[in-house]
Amino acid sequence: MNDVVHTKASIAADVKGDLKLLQITDTHLFADREKNLLGIKTVASYDAVVKHAEKYSGKCAAILSTGDLSQDHSAQSYLHFSERIKSLNMPCYWLPGNHDMQSVMLPSLLSEGLAQTKQIVSDHWQVILLDSQLEGVPHGHLSDDQLVFLEEKLQEFPDKYTLVAVHHHILPVGAAWLDQHILKNNAQFIALISQFKNVKAVLSGHVHQAFDVTKQGVRYLTSPSTCVQFKPRNNDFAVDNKEPGYRYLVLKQSGEIETQVERIDAGEFITDENATGY
Question: What pLDDT shows up at residue 2?
Answer without folding.
Answer: 41
